[in-house]
Write a structure and sequence with these properties.
By secondary structure, the protein is of the alpha/beta class. It contains 14 helices and 25 strands. A 5-stranded parallel β-sheet has the order 3-2-1-7-20, covered by helices on one side. It has a 5-stranded parallel β-sheet with strand order 9-16-10-11-12. A 5-stranded antiparallel β-sheet has the order 21-22-25-24-23, sandwiched between helices. α6 links the parallel β10 and β11. The longest helix has 25 residues. The protein is globular, with a radius of gyration of 24 Å.
C-alpha cells in the first residue's frame, strides 16, 4: 500500500467523492470541501433529477397507453407537484447515500468554497479555515453555459437548473439546443402536457452522434408531438403579451420563424467551473476555460490534480469517476492512467440512445474500409412484447481486422444494453465473438447478437 498522505478534494460530485473514497482506501487522510450538497451537479441538478422526471413522464405515457396491454385505467392525469416531490426524494436518497459513504470511509467533509492558496494549502472562503495537504484534487465540475442571444437573460428564460425547480408546468416551451439536456427536457415536458418546440443550430439533434440514429429519434419525437427545427439559429427572445416570450429564429432553408411560448429553456451545454479557485495566481495552465492536465490528471503545478468536467473533454459523470481514481492513485505514489478506449454515452429519451466509440461517419474518415451491421428492434421478440419496437442496434467495424470501432443503439433499455459492447470493445472482442455467445431468448440483447452477425450479412431474423 502507498504511504499515508493527506489529500484535499475540492468538489463533492461524482469525480470528487469517488476520488475521496479511493484515497481513503489507499490509506490517506482525506478532506473534501464542497460548497453545496454532496453529489454535485449530477445528483442535485443533472443525472438523478432529470431521470426521475423522465420516469414520471414515462409512467404517465404508459398509463395513457395501458389499453394496448388490456389494462383499463378510467382516468389518467398528472400531479406536477407530486412529480417534483418524487424528483426531490430521489435526490435526497442519493445525497444521503454519499454522506454515508463519506462517514464509512472517514472522509472529513467541510461545507464551503475551496480556494487554493499554494500547492499544499486550501482555504475555505466562508470560514477562512486553512487546510494543509500533500496533494490537491480539483473536482469543481461545470455550470450551465449560455449563448449571446438578444434577450436571453430576460424574465421567463430558464436554464436546466431553473426548470428543475418549477412550481408549475408551463403550457408551452421553446428549448434552445437539441443536445442531451434539451431532448430529455423536451420529452419530459411534452409527455407531461406542454407544447414543446426544439431549436437546434447544428444540422441534426444530438450533434456528434450518429446521423442515422439522430434522424430516427427526431422522427419518434415528432410523432410524440414535439416540434423540432434543426439547422436553425435563434436571433432574439422578446417579451410577448400578456406573460409569454417570443423567440425569433432563422430556419435551415433561410426562412424567418417566430414562436410565442410561455417559457424559453436554454440547454446549450455546460462549461468548466473554475470560479473562486484562485488557480490563475498559481500558474495552473488553462486552455479555453478548462484546466489542462496530463495523462496522470496532474496540472502544470506539481501536486495539484484536476478531474471531470473542469478539464473539459467528455463531460460525463462516469468519466469523472475514472479520472478521480486515476488522479488519487498517482497522488498516492502509484502509477495510473485513465483509459478512454470505450466510454459509453447515454441519452435517456424514450426510446433511449446509447453509443460507444466512433460513429459511422467518423469511422469512414479514419479507416479505409469499414463494415456495418444493423438489426432493427422491430424484428426483436422482446421489443415486440414491450410494444417498443422503434430503433436499431448498429455495429461499426474495421473490415480488415474485424475490430469494433463503435456501436450505436436506439431502443428500449439502450443505456443498459450498451454495457455488453463496452466490455467487448475493452476486451478487443470481434463481432464474431459477440455472436458466438449465447443470448437468452426473448431478450433485447439478442439485437446486439443479430447486429454482430449482420456485419457479415448472417443475421438470422431479418
Amino acid at each position: 500500500m502507498a504511504d499515508s498522505k493527506n489529500i484535499i478534494v475540492i468538489g463533492g460530485g461524482p469525480g470528487g467523492y469517488v476520488a475521496a473514497i479511493r484515497a481513503a482506501q489507499l490509506g490517506a487522510q482525506v478532506v473534501l470541501v464542497e460548497k453545496g450538497a454532496l453529489g454535485g451537479t449530477c445528483v442535485n441538478w443533472g443525472c438523478i433529477p432529470t431521470k426521475a422526471l423522465l420516469r414520471s413522464a414515462e409512467v404517465l405515457s404508459l398509463a395513457k397507453k395501458a389499453e394496448t396491454f388490456g389494462v383499463i385505467i378510467e382516468k389518467v392525469s398528472l400531479d406536477f407537484a407530486s412529480a417534483m416531490k418524487w424528483k426531490e426524494s430521489t435526490i435526497k436518497r442519493s445525497v444521503s447515500g454519499i454522506t454515508s459513504l463519506m462517514r464509512k470511509n472517514k472522509v472529513k467533509v467541510i461545507k464551503g468554497t475551496g480556494a487554493i492558496i499554494d500547492p499544499k494549502t486550501v482555504r475555505v472562503i466562508e470560514s477562512k479555515e486553512e487546510i494543509k495537504g500533500d496533494s490537491i484534487i480539483i473536482a469543481t465540475g461545470s455550470k450551465t453555459a449560455t449563448v449571446p442571444i438578444k434577450g436571453i437573460d430576460g424574465q421567463g428564460v430558464m436554464t436546466s437548473d431553473d426548470a428543475l425547480v418549477m412550481d408549475q408546468l408551463p403550457q408551452s416551451v421553446l428549448i434552445v439546443g437539441g443536445g442531451v439536456v434539451g431532448l430529455e427536457f423536451a420529452q419530459v415536458l411534452g409527455r407531461m402536457g406542454a407544447k414543446v418546440t426544439v431549436v437546434e443550430m447544428m444540422p441534426q439533434v444530438l450533434p456528434g452522434e450518429d446521423a442515422e440514429v439522430a434522424q430516427m429519434l427526431t422522427e419518434v419525437l415528432k410523432k410524440g408531438g414535439i416540434e423540432i427545427y434543426s439547422g436553425a439559429t435563434i436571433t432574439s427572445i422578446e417579451d410577448a403579451k400578456p406573460d409569454g416570450k417570443k423567440a425569433s429564429f432563422t430556419t435551415a432553408d433561410g426562412s424567418k420563424e417566430e414562436k410565442t411560448v410561455e417559457k424559453v429553456l436554454v440547454a446549450v451545454g455546460r462549461r468548466p467551473n473554475t470560479d473562486d479557485l484562485g488557480i490563475e495566481k498559481l500558474g495552473v495552465a488553462m486552455e479555453k476555460g478548462r484546466i489542462v492536465v496530463n495523462e496522470r490528471m496532474e496540472t502544470s503545478v506539481p501536486g495539484i490534480y484536476a478531474i471531470g468536467d473542469v478539464v473539459g473533454g467528455v463531460m460525463l459523470a462516469h468519466v469523472a469517476m475514472v479520472e478521480g481514481k486515476c488522479a488519487v492513485e498517482n497522488a498516492m505514489g502509484l502509477s495510473s492512467k485513465a483509459d478512454y478506449l470505450a466510454v459509453p454515452r447515454c441519452i435517456y429519451t424514450s426510446p433511449e440512445v446509447a453509443a460507444v466509440g466512433l460513429t459511422e461517419a467518423d469511422a469512414k474518415k479514419e479507416y479505409q474500409d469499414i463494415r456495418v451491421g444493423r438489426f432493427p428492434f422491430i424484428a426483436n421478440g422482446r421489443a415486440s412484447t414491450l410494444n417498443e419496437a422503434e430503433g436499431l442496434v448498429k455495429i461499426v467495424t474495421d473490415a480488415k481486422y474485424g475490430q469494433i470501432l463503435g456501436v450505436q443503439i436506439l431502443g428500449p433499455e439502450a443505456s443498459e444494453l450498451i454495457a455488453e459492447v463496452v466490455l467487448a470493445m475493452q476486451l478487443e472482442a470481434t463481432p464474431e465473438e459477440i455472436a458466438s455467445c449465447i443470448h437468452a431468448h426473448p431478450t433485447l440483447s439478442e439485437a446486439i447478437m443479430e447486429a454482430a452477425l449482420n456485419v457479415d450479412g448472417k443475421a438470422l431474423n431479418i
